[in-house]
Amino acid sequence: MAKSGMWQRAAAVAAKAPPERNRVVDLLRALSILAVVVGHWLVAAPYVENGAVTGGHLLGIAPWTQWLTWLFQVMPVFFLVGGFSNGMSWAASVRKQGNWPDWFASRVRRLIAPVLPLFLVWTAFALFGAAAGVERGIVKMAAQLALIPVWFLAVYLIVTALTPWTHAFWRRAGFLSVVALIAGAVAIDVASLRFGVPYVNFANFLFVWLAIHQLGYAWSEGRFAGRGRALAMGLAGLTALLLLVRFGPYPVAMIGVPGADLSNSMPPTLALLALGIAQAGIALTLEPILRRWLESDRAWTAVVLVNGMIMTIYLWHLTAFVAVVTGAWLLGGAGLHSFPATSDWWLARPLWFALYIVATVPLVVLFARFESPGREPVDARQVPHWRLVAGLLMICAGLAMTAAISIASPLGVTGVRLWVVALPFAGAALIRFGPVYSLAKR
Protein backbone atom coordinates (compact mmCIF):
# COMPACT_ATOMS: atom_id res chain seq x y z
CA MET A 1 0.00 0.00 0.00
CA ALA A 2 2.78 2.43 0.95
CA LYS A 3 4.63 1.72 -2.26
CA SER A 4 1.44 2.15 -4.27
CA GLY A 5 0.71 5.42 -2.45
CA MET A 6 4.18 6.77 -3.17
CA TRP A 7 3.85 5.82 -6.82
CA GLN A 8 0.44 7.47 -7.10
CA ARG A 9 1.71 10.68 -5.53
CA ALA A 10 4.68 10.68 -7.89
CA ALA A 11 2.36 10.05 -10.84
CA ALA A 12 0.23 13.02 -9.80
CA VAL A 13 3.31 15.27 -9.64
CA ALA A 14 4.59 13.89 -12.95
CA ALA A 15 1.28 14.66 -14.66
CA LYS A 16 1.54 18.32 -13.61
CA ALA A 17 4.93 18.82 -15.23
CA PRO A 18 4.68 21.43 -18.00
CA PRO A 19 5.28 20.03 -21.50
CA GLU A 20 8.31 22.30 -22.02
CA ARG A 21 10.12 20.84 -18.99
CA ASN A 22 13.35 19.09 -19.93
CA ARG A 23 12.86 15.74 -18.24
CA VAL A 24 16.40 14.66 -19.04
CA VAL A 25 17.62 17.12 -16.38
CA ASP A 26 15.69 15.24 -13.71
CA LEU A 27 16.88 11.89 -15.04
CA LEU A 28 20.54 12.90 -15.02
CA ARG A 29 20.24 14.34 -11.51
CA ALA A 30 18.88 11.04 -10.21
CA LEU A 31 21.33 8.87 -12.16
CA SER A 32 24.36 10.89 -11.05
CA ILE A 33 23.50 10.58 -7.36
CA LEU A 34 22.59 6.89 -7.65
CA ALA A 35 25.91 6.20 -9.40
CA VAL A 36 27.76 7.85 -6.52
CA VAL A 37 25.80 5.74 -4.03
CA VAL A 38 26.68 2.52 -5.87
CA GLY A 39 30.29 3.62 -6.14
CA HIS A 40 30.57 4.29 -2.41
CA TRP A 41 29.03 0.94 -1.54
CA LEU A 42 31.46 -0.78 -3.88
CA VAL A 43 34.78 0.86 -2.97
CA ALA A 44 34.26 0.73 0.81
CA ALA A 45 35.43 -2.83 1.45
CA PRO A 46 35.73 -3.69 5.15
CA TYR A 47 36.94 -7.15 6.11
CA VAL A 48 37.98 -9.05 9.22
CA GLU A 49 41.70 -9.49 9.80
CA ASN A 50 43.22 -10.87 12.99
CA GLY A 51 39.87 -10.65 14.71
CA ALA A 52 39.33 -6.96 13.95
CA VAL A 53 37.49 -5.11 11.21
CA THR A 54 39.84 -3.43 8.75
CA GLY A 55 38.52 -0.58 6.60
CA GLY A 56 39.64 -1.83 3.21
CA HIS A 57 39.45 0.33 0.08
CA LEU A 58 38.81 -1.54 -3.16
CA LEU A 59 40.76 0.90 -5.34
CA GLY A 60 43.89 0.39 -3.29
CA ILE A 61 43.51 -3.38 -2.99
CA ALA A 62 42.69 -4.00 -6.66
CA PRO A 63 44.24 -1.18 -8.74
CA TRP A 64 42.46 -2.27 -11.93
CA THR A 65 39.18 -1.14 -10.37
CA GLN A 66 40.42 2.46 -10.48
CA TRP A 67 39.26 2.59 -14.11
CA LEU A 68 35.70 2.07 -12.84
CA THR A 69 35.78 5.53 -11.29
CA TRP A 70 35.44 6.95 -14.81
CA LEU A 71 31.89 5.57 -14.67
CA PHE A 72 31.00 6.09 -11.00
CA GLN A 73 32.57 9.50 -10.37
CA VAL A 74 29.70 11.41 -11.90
CA MET A 75 29.54 14.46 -9.65
CA PRO A 76 30.39 16.51 -12.78
CA VAL A 77 27.00 15.50 -14.19
CA PHE A 78 25.33 16.82 -11.05
CA PHE A 79 27.07 20.18 -11.50
CA LEU A 80 26.05 20.19 -15.18
CA VAL A 81 22.44 19.68 -14.13
CA GLY A 82 22.90 22.31 -11.43
CA GLY A 83 24.04 24.83 -14.02
CA PHE A 84 20.97 24.10 -16.13
CA SER A 85 18.57 24.46 -13.18
CA ASN A 86 20.28 27.46 -11.59
CA GLY A 87 20.53 29.26 -14.92
CA MET A 88 16.84 28.74 -15.71
CA SER A 89 15.75 29.68 -12.19
CA TRP A 90 17.92 32.81 -11.96
CA ALA A 91 16.86 34.00 -15.42
CA ALA A 92 13.21 33.58 -14.40
CA SER A 93 13.88 35.50 -11.18
CA VAL A 94 15.49 38.35 -13.12
CA ARG A 95 12.49 38.52 -15.46
CA LYS A 96 10.23 38.89 -12.40
CA GLN A 97 12.54 41.57 -10.98
CA GLY A 98 13.63 39.27 -8.19
CA ASN A 99 16.78 39.75 -6.16
CA TRP A 100 19.73 37.60 -5.17
CA PRO A 101 19.03 37.37 -1.41
CA ASP A 102 15.51 36.02 -1.88
CA TRP A 103 16.53 33.70 -4.70
CA PHE A 104 19.58 32.27 -2.96
CA ALA A 105 18.03 32.06 0.52
CA SER A 106 15.31 29.86 -0.93
CA ARG A 107 17.87 27.52 -2.51
CA VAL A 108 19.94 27.34 0.68
CA ARG A 109 16.90 26.27 2.67
CA ARG A 110 16.05 23.48 0.24
CA LEU A 111 19.63 22.19 0.21
CA ILE A 112 20.37 22.37 3.93
CA ALA A 113 17.02 21.07 5.23
CA PRO A 114 17.82 17.35 4.63
CA VAL A 115 21.31 17.71 6.14
CA LEU A 116 20.34 18.87 9.63
CA PRO A 117 18.60 15.63 10.73
CA LEU A 118 21.68 13.69 9.61
CA PHE A 119 23.85 15.88 11.83
CA LEU A 120 21.49 15.40 14.78
CA VAL A 121 21.46 11.62 14.48
CA TRP A 122 25.24 11.28 14.22
CA THR A 123 25.86 13.80 16.97
CA ALA A 124 23.62 11.74 19.24
CA PHE A 125 25.45 8.56 18.18
CA ALA A 126 28.83 10.12 18.94
CA LEU A 127 27.65 11.45 22.32
CA PHE A 128 26.08 8.20 23.48
CA GLY A 129 28.88 6.12 22.00
CA ALA A 130 31.48 8.07 23.95
CA ALA A 131 29.36 7.91 27.12
CA ALA A 132 28.88 4.16 26.71
CA GLY A 133 32.60 3.59 26.46
CA VAL A 134 32.78 2.69 22.77
CA GLU A 135 36.32 3.19 21.54
CA ARG A 136 36.64 6.78 20.38
CA GLY A 137 38.53 5.78 17.25
CA ILE A 138 35.66 3.54 16.13
CA VAL A 139 33.08 6.26 16.76
CA LYS A 140 35.17 8.77 14.82
CA MET A 141 35.67 6.38 11.88
CA ALA A 142 31.96 5.54 11.69
CA ALA A 143 30.83 9.17 11.90
CA GLN A 144 33.37 10.37 9.37
CA LEU A 145 32.44 7.63 6.90
CA ALA A 146 28.71 8.25 7.25
CA LEU A 147 29.08 12.01 6.84
CA ILE A 148 31.43 12.01 3.86
CA PRO A 149 28.54 12.92 1.49
CA VAL A 150 28.16 16.40 2.98
CA TRP A 151 31.43 17.72 1.50
CA PHE A 152 30.01 18.30 -1.95
CA LEU A 153 27.11 20.38 -0.62
CA ALA A 154 29.59 22.95 0.68
CA VAL A 155 31.06 23.35 -2.80
CA TYR A 156 27.69 23.26 -4.53
CA LEU A 157 26.29 25.98 -2.24
CA ILE A 158 29.18 28.30 -3.09
CA VAL A 159 28.85 27.57 -6.81
CA THR A 160 25.11 28.27 -6.56
CA ALA A 161 25.73 31.49 -4.62
CA LEU A 162 27.86 32.77 -7.51
CA THR A 163 25.13 32.13 -10.09
CA PRO A 164 24.21 35.79 -10.80
CA TRP A 165 27.83 36.61 -11.64
CA THR A 166 28.71 33.41 -13.51
CA HIS A 167 25.46 33.60 -15.45
CA ALA A 168 26.22 37.19 -16.42
CA PHE A 169 29.70 36.03 -17.47
CA TRP A 170 28.09 33.37 -19.66
CA ARG A 171 25.63 35.79 -21.24
CA ARG A 172 28.46 38.17 -22.05
CA ALA A 173 31.21 35.75 -23.14
CA GLY A 174 29.42 32.51 -24.05
CA PHE A 175 31.75 29.53 -24.41
CA LEU A 176 34.74 31.82 -23.81
CA SER A 177 33.62 31.86 -20.16
CA VAL A 178 34.12 28.09 -20.07
CA VAL A 179 37.51 28.43 -21.76
CA ALA A 180 38.55 31.05 -19.21
CA LEU A 181 37.67 28.77 -16.31
CA ILE A 182 39.46 25.83 -17.93
CA ALA A 183 42.52 28.08 -18.34
CA GLY A 184 42.26 28.91 -14.66
CA ALA A 185 42.21 25.22 -13.76
CA VAL A 186 45.28 24.63 -15.95
CA ALA A 187 47.13 27.51 -14.26
CA ILE A 188 46.28 26.20 -10.81
CA ASP A 189 47.50 22.67 -11.60
CA VAL A 190 50.73 24.03 -13.10
CA ALA A 191 51.33 26.18 -10.03
CA SER A 192 50.58 23.28 -7.69
CA LEU A 193 52.08 20.28 -9.48
CA ARG A 194 54.94 21.89 -11.40
CA PHE A 195 56.06 24.62 -9.02
CA GLY A 196 54.80 23.24 -5.71
CA VAL A 197 52.87 26.34 -4.64
CA PRO A 198 51.14 25.26 -1.41
CA TYR A 199 47.36 25.32 -1.01
CA VAL A 200 46.75 26.99 -4.38
CA ASN A 201 45.21 23.73 -5.64
CA PHE A 202 42.14 24.37 -3.49
CA ALA A 203 41.17 27.12 -5.93
CA ASN A 204 40.22 24.35 -8.34
CA PHE A 205 37.18 23.61 -6.24
CA LEU A 206 35.89 26.73 -7.97
CA PHE A 207 37.56 26.67 -11.39
CA VAL A 208 36.71 23.02 -12.13
CA TRP A 209 33.16 22.95 -10.84
CA LEU A 210 32.28 26.39 -12.20
CA ALA A 211 33.47 25.33 -15.67
CA ILE A 212 31.07 22.36 -15.63
CA HIS A 213 28.35 24.59 -14.18
CA GLN A 214 28.81 27.00 -17.13
CA LEU A 215 28.17 24.12 -19.53
CA GLY A 216 24.80 23.76 -17.81
CA TYR A 217 24.00 27.35 -18.78
CA ALA A 218 24.87 26.52 -22.37
CA TRP A 219 22.60 23.49 -22.25
CA SER A 220 19.69 25.52 -20.83
CA GLU A 221 19.95 27.93 -23.77
CA GLY A 222 19.90 25.19 -26.39
CA ARG A 223 23.55 25.50 -27.38
CA PHE A 224 23.82 21.71 -27.66
CA ALA A 225 20.64 21.22 -29.69
CA GLY A 226 22.53 19.34 -32.39
CA ARG A 227 24.39 16.17 -31.52
CA GLY A 228 27.53 17.28 -33.34
CA ARG A 229 28.69 19.86 -30.81
CA ALA A 230 27.92 17.65 -27.80
CA LEU A 231 29.64 14.63 -29.36
CA ALA A 232 32.70 16.70 -30.28
CA MET A 233 32.89 18.00 -26.72
CA GLY A 234 32.59 14.51 -25.29
CA LEU A 235 35.32 13.13 -27.54
CA ALA A 236 37.58 16.11 -26.79
CA GLY A 237 37.14 15.62 -23.06
CA LEU A 238 37.81 11.90 -23.28
CA THR A 239 40.89 12.42 -25.45
CA ALA A 240 42.24 15.03 -23.05
CA LEU A 241 41.62 12.72 -20.11
CA LEU A 242 43.48 9.83 -21.74
CA LEU A 243 46.43 12.07 -22.56
CA LEU A 244 46.54 13.58 -19.07
CA VAL A 245 46.52 10.17 -17.42
CA ARG A 246 49.01 8.65 -19.89
CA PHE A 247 51.55 11.47 -20.08
CA GLY A 248 50.72 13.72 -17.14
CA PRO A 249 51.07 13.33 -13.37
CA TYR A 250 47.42 12.41 -12.88
CA PRO A 251 46.34 9.01 -11.51
CA VAL A 252 43.73 6.85 -13.21
CA ALA A 253 41.35 6.99 -10.24
CA MET A 254 38.98 9.93 -10.29
CA ILE A 255 38.55 9.77 -6.51
CA GLY A 256 41.17 9.59 -3.78
CA VAL A 257 42.99 6.32 -3.17
CA PRO A 258 44.55 5.69 0.26
CA GLY A 259 48.31 6.13 0.09
CA ALA A 260 48.29 7.84 -3.31
CA ASP A 261 50.43 10.95 -3.73
CA LEU A 262 47.76 12.80 -5.69
CA SER A 263 43.97 12.80 -5.64
CA ASN A 264 41.97 13.90 -8.67
CA SER A 265 39.01 14.92 -6.54
CA MET A 266 40.28 16.45 -3.27
CA PRO A 267 40.78 19.06 -4.57
CA PRO A 268 39.69 18.49 -8.19
CA THR A 269 42.30 18.50 -10.92
CA LEU A 270 42.40 19.15 -14.64
CA ALA A 271 41.91 15.40 -15.16
CA LEU A 272 38.59 15.47 -13.32
CA LEU A 273 37.57 18.51 -15.38
CA ALA A 274 38.37 16.55 -18.55
CA LEU A 275 36.25 13.67 -17.27
CA GLY A 276 33.40 16.08 -16.56
CA ILE A 277 33.57 17.53 -20.06
CA ALA A 278 33.55 14.01 -21.51
CA GLN A 279 30.58 12.97 -19.38
CA ALA A 280 28.68 16.15 -20.26
CA GLY A 281 29.28 15.63 -23.95
CA ILE A 282 28.19 11.99 -23.85
CA ALA A 283 25.08 12.75 -21.78
CA LEU A 284 24.01 15.59 -24.10
CA THR A 285 24.66 13.44 -27.18
CA LEU A 286 22.22 10.91 -25.75
CA GLU A 287 19.65 13.57 -24.82
CA PRO A 288 17.30 12.98 -27.80
CA ILE A 289 17.17 9.25 -27.04
CA LEU A 290 16.57 9.91 -23.35
CA ARG A 291 13.82 12.44 -24.16
CA ARG A 292 11.94 9.86 -26.19
CA TRP A 293 12.26 7.28 -23.42
CA LEU A 294 10.94 9.75 -20.85
CA GLU A 295 7.78 10.27 -22.89
CA SER A 296 6.59 7.06 -21.26
CA ASP A 297 4.39 7.84 -18.25
CA ARG A 298 5.91 4.98 -16.28
CA ALA A 299 9.49 6.05 -16.93
CA TRP A 300 8.77 9.70 -16.13
CA THR A 301 6.89 8.79 -12.94
CA ALA A 302 9.82 6.65 -11.81
CA VAL A 303 12.18 9.58 -12.35
CA VAL A 304 9.90 11.92 -10.40
CA LEU A 305 9.61 9.38 -7.58
CA VAL A 306 13.37 8.99 -7.23
CA ASN A 307 14.03 12.72 -7.53
CA GLY A 308 11.63 13.39 -4.67
CA MET A 309 13.96 11.57 -2.30
CA ILE A 310 17.31 11.64 -4.09
CA MET A 311 19.14 13.91 -1.63
CA THR A 312 17.91 11.79 1.26
CA ILE A 313 19.23 8.67 -0.45
CA TYR A 314 22.56 10.39 -1.02
CA LEU A 315 22.90 11.70 2.52
CA TRP A 316 21.87 8.51 4.31
CA HIS A 317 23.27 5.72 2.12
CA LEU A 318 26.54 5.51 4.06
CA THR A 319 24.68 5.50 7.37
CA ALA A 320 22.90 2.42 6.05
CA PHE A 321 26.28 0.97 5.05
CA VAL A 322 27.67 1.51 8.54
CA ALA A 323 24.56 -0.08 10.08
CA VAL A 324 24.84 -3.20 7.90
CA VAL A 325 28.56 -3.65 8.53
CA THR A 326 28.07 -3.11 12.26
CA GLY A 327 25.31 -5.70 12.28
CA ALA A 328 27.53 -8.18 10.44
CA TRP A 329 30.32 -7.58 12.95
CA LEU A 330 27.98 -8.14 15.91
CA LEU A 331 26.97 -11.45 14.30
CA GLY A 332 30.53 -12.68 14.50
CA GLY A 333 31.80 -10.99 11.38
CA ALA A 334 29.31 -12.71 9.10
CA GLY A 335 30.27 -12.09 5.50
CA LEU A 336 33.32 -10.04 6.42
CA HIS A 337 35.92 -12.81 6.23
CA SER A 338 36.34 -12.70 2.44
CA PHE A 339 39.29 -10.55 1.36
CA PRO A 340 38.17 -7.75 -1.01
CA ALA A 341 38.40 -8.34 -4.76
CA THR A 342 38.59 -12.14 -4.43
CA SER A 343 36.06 -14.25 -6.32
CA ASP A 344 34.10 -14.97 -3.12
CA TRP A 345 33.97 -11.28 -2.33
CA TRP A 346 32.64 -10.36 -5.79
CA LEU A 347 30.03 -13.13 -5.69
CA ALA A 348 28.77 -11.77 -2.38
CA ARG A 349 28.31 -8.19 -3.68
CA PRO A 350 24.67 -8.65 -4.83
CA LEU A 351 23.69 -9.86 -1.36
CA TRP A 352 25.52 -7.02 0.37
CA PHE A 353 23.96 -4.47 -1.98
CA ALA A 354 20.52 -5.91 -1.21
CA LEU A 355 21.23 -5.46 2.51
CA TYR A 356 22.38 -1.88 1.96
CA ILE A 357 19.18 -1.11 0.07
CA VAL A 358 17.03 -2.71 2.78
CA ALA A 359 18.80 -0.61 5.40
CA THR A 360 18.46 2.57 3.33
CA VAL A 361 14.72 2.30 2.67
CA PRO A 362 13.48 3.01 6.23
CA LEU A 363 15.90 5.92 6.53
CA VAL A 364 14.51 7.39 3.32
CA VAL A 365 10.92 6.86 4.46
CA LEU A 366 11.70 8.56 7.76
CA PHE A 367 13.77 11.50 6.54
CA ALA A 368 12.61 12.25 2.99
CA ARG A 369 10.02 14.66 4.43
CA PHE A 370 12.83 17.17 5.04
CA GLU A 371 13.61 17.28 1.35
CA SER A 372 10.53 19.37 0.45
CA PRO A 373 10.44 22.40 2.74
CA GLY A 374 7.14 23.56 1.31
CA ARG A 375 5.99 27.16 1.32
CA GLU A 376 8.45 29.59 2.81
CA PRO A 377 7.39 31.58 5.86
CA VAL A 378 6.94 35.29 5.24
CA ASP A 379 9.63 36.22 7.77
CA ALA A 380 12.17 34.09 5.87
CA ARG A 381 12.18 36.57 3.02
CA GLN A 382 14.33 39.65 2.57
CA VAL A 383 17.34 38.23 4.36
CA PRO A 384 20.01 40.96 4.65
CA HIS A 385 23.08 40.36 2.50
CA TRP A 386 25.46 40.16 5.45
CA ARG A 387 23.36 37.51 7.17
CA LEU A 388 23.03 35.49 4.01
CA VAL A 389 26.78 35.56 3.33
CA ALA A 390 27.71 34.91 6.97
CA GLY A 391 25.21 32.05 7.18
CA LEU A 392 26.52 30.55 3.94
CA LEU A 393 30.12 30.68 5.18
CA MET A 394 29.18 29.07 8.50
CA ILE A 395 27.23 26.29 6.80
CA CYS A 396 30.01 25.57 4.30
CA ALA A 397 32.70 25.65 7.00
CA GLY A 398 30.73 23.18 9.10
CA LEU A 399 30.13 20.81 6.18
CA ALA A 400 33.77 20.98 5.07
CA MET A 401 35.10 20.36 8.59
CA THR A 402 32.70 17.46 9.02
CA ALA A 403 34.10 15.71 5.96
CA ALA A 404 37.71 16.62 6.78
CA ILE A 405 38.02 15.89 10.51
CA SER A 406 34.64 14.37 11.54
CA ILE A 407 32.23 15.64 14.17
CA ALA A 408 33.51 12.93 16.52
CA SER A 409 36.64 13.64 18.53
CA PRO A 410 39.06 11.18 20.12
CA LEU A 411 39.56 13.72 22.93
CA GLY A 412 37.36 15.71 25.28
CA VAL A 413 34.53 14.86 27.62
CA THR A 414 31.71 14.64 25.09
CA GLY A 415 33.60 12.91 22.27
CA VAL A 416 32.04 15.43 19.85
CA ARG A 417 33.45 18.51 18.20
CA LEU A 418 30.45 20.59 19.16
CA TRP A 419 31.74 23.65 17.32
CA VAL A 420 31.69 21.71 14.04
CA VAL A 421 28.13 20.52 14.66
CA ALA A 422 27.01 24.00 15.66
CA LEU A 423 28.25 25.75 12.51
CA PRO A 424 25.61 24.45 10.03
CA PHE A 425 22.79 25.00 12.52
CA ALA A 426 23.96 28.50 13.39
CA GLY A 427 24.41 29.36 9.72
CA ALA A 428 20.94 28.03 8.88
CA ALA A 429 19.43 29.99 11.78
CA LEU A 430 21.16 33.13 10.57
CA ILE A 431 19.33 32.70 7.27
CA ARG A 432 16.12 32.34 9.29
CA PHE A 433 15.80 28.65 8.85
CA GLY A 434 15.79 25.80 11.32
CA PRO A 435 14.48 22.27 11.89
CA VAL A 436 11.52 23.68 13.84
CA TYR A 437 10.14 25.12 10.59
CA SER A 438 10.50 21.81 8.73
CA LEU A 439 8.75 19.92 11.51
CA ALA A 440 6.07 22.52 11.99
CA LYS A 441 4.89 22.23 8.41
CA ARG A 442 4.14 18.56 9.01
Give a brief rundown of this model:
The protein has helices spanning 2-15, 23-43, 58-61, 69-72, 75-95, 100-112, 115-131, 136-146, 151-161, 163-173, 175-194, 204-220, 227-247, 270-285, 287-293, 297-307, 310-330, 343-367, 385-405, 418-430, 435-440; strands spanning 44-49, 52-57.
Describe this structure in words.
With about 450 residues, this protein is mainly α. The protein has one domain (about 1-440). The protein is built from 21 helices and two strands. A two-stranded antiparallel ribbon has the order 1-2. It is globular and about 60 Å long.
Low-confidence stretches: 433-442
Helix content: 55-70%
What is the H/E order?
Answer: HHEEHHHHHHHHHHHHHHHHHHH
Count structural domains: 1
Proportion of residues in extended strands: under 5%
Mean pLDDT: 89
Topology:
Elements: H1 2-15, H2 23-43, E1 44-49, E2 52-57, H3 58-61, H4 69-72, H5 75-95, H6 100-112, H7 115-131, H8 136-146, H9 151-161, H10 163-173, H11 175-194, H12 204-220, H13 227-247, H14 270-285, H15 287-293, H16 297-307, H17 310-330, H18 343-367, H19 385-405, H20 418-430, H21 435-440
Antiparallel strand pairs: 1-2
Helix pairs in contact: 1-16, 2-5, 2-16, 2-17, 5-12, 5-14, 6-9, 6-19, 7-8, 7-20, 8-17, 9-12, 9-19, 10-11, 11-12, 12-14, 13-14, 17-18, 19-20
